[in-house]
Amino acid sequence: MSRRTPLISGNWKMHHNHFEAIQVTQKLHYRLGDHDYDGVGVSIHPPFTDLRSVQTVIGADRMKIALGAQNCHAEEKGAFTGEVSAPMLAKLEVALVIVGHSERRQLFGETDDMVNAKVKAVLASAMTPIMCCGETLEEREAGDAEAKVASQVRGGLAGVAADSVANMVIAYEPIWAIGTGRTATSEDAQAMCAAVRSVVSEVAGTAAADCVRIQYGGSVKPGNIAELMSQADIDGALVGGASLDPDDFASICAYRS
Ligand code: 13P
């Protein structure tokens, strides 16, 4: 049995206004029993505008669901119109922040250096980064998947202390599997997550590599989660589309039952 506590995270992306967010969070809470959280962490990552409302319902009902965000700026404050800082998220009891999602990299020009700065900002505010990596279809077909992901992981973790790396989460999300219904086979997902762990071992040592949690993301559904979670190096899932529906997401979180 792994020492790593699995983490199932729902990345809502740009879906659900704050009224919908409250309903979805409450439904998810009702669908999950106490035993579903035994040895499994569950987090939801609503848009910024929902965070305060979701934090309030989680707190009022003492839910075991952890609150997460989808992004932050690397600076603490300043003239960065439209941005939100890590300390602002920490004040809202946000526990986990996704950084370097492939949509941020592809659509908003985030580089490995920016991702690295955000990882450090999240850690400095005592939150846990979920640092994303993943290759495009062209890179996979060219046989470059491992090299691409290794360079993202090296870049994202540069200068991060080994004990901080140990407490982080890294999400391996092949871009060709995101929102396409085309999941990586559990063997491919396992091989890539093992490759990520060996890069972590290289840059932060074996103790950190043993502790870091590695999620798989990309068309995770109630029907494929159990098989993915049975793989030795897969410690959780980062779920997009299927996390929007509380029934589906609850089934994914309760993958052991
Ligand atoms: P889907 O689960 O919709 O493929 O999205 C995956 C993802 O990008 C989660 O961050």
From TrEMBL:
InterPro entries: Aldolase_TIM, TIM_sf, TrioseP_Isoase_bac/euk, Triosephosphate_isomerase, Triosephosphate_isomerase_AS. HAMAP family: TIM_B (MF_00147_B). It is found in: Cytoplasm. Involved in the gluconeogenesis. Catalyzes stereospecifically the conversion of dihydroxyacetone phosphate (DHAP) to D-glyceraldehyde-3-phosphate (G3P). Belongs to the triosephosphate isomerase family. Pathway: Carbohydrate biosynthesis; gluconeogenesis; Carbohydrate degradation; glycolysis; D-glyceraldehyde 3-phosphate from glycerone phosphate: step 1/1. Its main location: cytoplasm. GO terms for cellular component: cytosol. The gene is tpiA. It catalyses: D-glyceraldehyde 3-phosphate = dihydroxyacetone phosphate. It comes from the Bacteria. Transmembrane segments: none annotated. Homodimer. Substrate binds at N11, W12, K13, G179, S219, G240, G241. This is Triosephosphate isomerase. The active site is at H101 (electrophile), E173 (proton acceptor). NCBIfam families: tim. CDD domains: TIM. GO terms for molecular function: triose-phosphate isomerase activity. Keywords: Cytoplasm, Gluconeogenesis, Glycolysis, Isomerase. Its EC number is 5.3.1.1. GO terms for biological process: gluconeogenesis; glyceraldehyde-3-phosphate biosynthetic process; glycerol catabolic process; glycolytic process.
